[in-house]
């Protein structure tokens, strides 16, 4: 499925791009104040850290998904090997969720002590930090699954990014994403005895869900990579401005 980010998702990228414009850099250089210079440099580093954690979590999830798909193609009928691989997948997902949970708790506990500066570009930089953190929080919650969801609005936001054609009113259906479906189906596969025909049918269904999951992961990966690149470029621009 193609990725079609909405205006809110692209707002940080647009503002970050504006930092590199010559007149913007002039304004920032003229209005330097140590308090907010330190504030933004620290904030940009924090955003990079969280974005890096999200990228790592997504990469690990992607690798596990590929391994599971591979074993299903090769060993569709071998329950022992498939069960072993499913166990690895679920264990890996637990590790990812634990890391995300720790990160989300840190994001909630770290408040920001903002000084009152009227410069419009400074206000926009603050806005982009808030919006970007919100997007990253939503992405981490989306990757981790149901128990770590913090806000239903954030959840719906990421669902709209990954599935732009779905209607927001479909709450009952969109409340569960592809990663959750795969998780639930794998746990069911591990915990219930099935007839041979039911087992094979369940595995075939799993293949379809894994493909959908892979599509979602790809879309999220593209957005994170784009955001990460802009965050790095912006931090370099800020360092160049403040060091001259």
Question: Please, could you describe this protein's structure?
Answer:
This protein is an all-alpha fold and 244 residues long. It has a single domain (7-242), classed as Four Helix Bundle (Hemerythrin (Met), subunit A) (Up-down Bundle). 80% of the residues lie in helices and 0% in strands. The longest helix has 47 residues, at 196-242. The protein is elongated, with a radius of gyration of 21 Å. The model is unreliable at 1-8, 111-118, 150-157 and 164-174 (pLDDT under 50).
List keywords for this structure.
disordered N terminus; elongated; single chain; mainly alpha; 244 residues; Four Helix Bundle (Hemerythrin (Met), subunit A)
Point out poorly predicted stretches.
1-8, 111-118, 150-157, 164-174
What value does the Rg take, in angstroms? 21 Å
From the 3D structure, determine the CATH topology.
Four Helix Bundle (Hemerythrin (Met), subunit A)
| CATH architecture title | Up-down Bundle
Q: How many runs of DSSP E, i.e. beta strands?
A: 0
Residue fraction in strands: under 5%
CATH class: Mainly Alpha
Largest sheet descriptor: none
Percent range of helical residues: over 70%
- Name the shape in a single word: elongated
Secondary-structure-based class equals mainly alpha
Domains, number: 1
Number of helices: 9
**How far apart, in Å, are the first and last alpha carbons?**
45 Å
Q: Tell me, rounded to a whole number, the average pLDDT.
A: 72
H/E element order: HHHHHHHHH
InterPro entries: BPS1_pln
């Amino acid at each position: 499925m193609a990725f079609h980010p909405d205006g809110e998702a692209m707002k940080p990228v647009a503002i970050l791009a504006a930092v590199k414009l010559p007149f913007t850099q002039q304004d920032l250089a003229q209005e330097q104040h140590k308090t907010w210079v330190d504030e933004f440099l620290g904030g940009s580093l924090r955003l990079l850290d969280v974005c890096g954690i999200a990228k790592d979590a997504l990469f690990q999830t992607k690798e596990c998904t590929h391994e599971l798909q591979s074993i299903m193609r090769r060993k569709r009928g071998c329950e022992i090997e498939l069960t072993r691989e499913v166990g690895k997948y679920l264990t890996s997902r637990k590790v990812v969720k634990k890391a995300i949970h720790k990160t989300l708790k840190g994001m909630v506990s770290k408040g920001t002590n903002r000084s009152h500066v009227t410069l419009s570009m400074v206000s926009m930089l603050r806005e982009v930090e808030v919006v970007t953190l919100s997007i990253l929080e939503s992405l981490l919650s989306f990757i981790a699954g149901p128990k770590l969801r913090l806000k239903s609005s954030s959840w719906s936001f990421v669902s709209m990014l990954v599935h732009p054609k779905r209607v927001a009113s479909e709450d009952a259906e969109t409340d569960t994403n592809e990663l959750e479906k795969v998780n639930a189906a794998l746990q069911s596969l591990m915990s219930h005895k099935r007839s041979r025909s039911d087992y094979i049918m369940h595995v075939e269904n799993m293949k379809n869900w894994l493909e959908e999951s892979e599509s979602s992961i790809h879309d999220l990966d593209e957005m994170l990579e784009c955001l990460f690149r802009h965050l790095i470029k912006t931090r370099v621009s800020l360092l160049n401005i403040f060091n001259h």
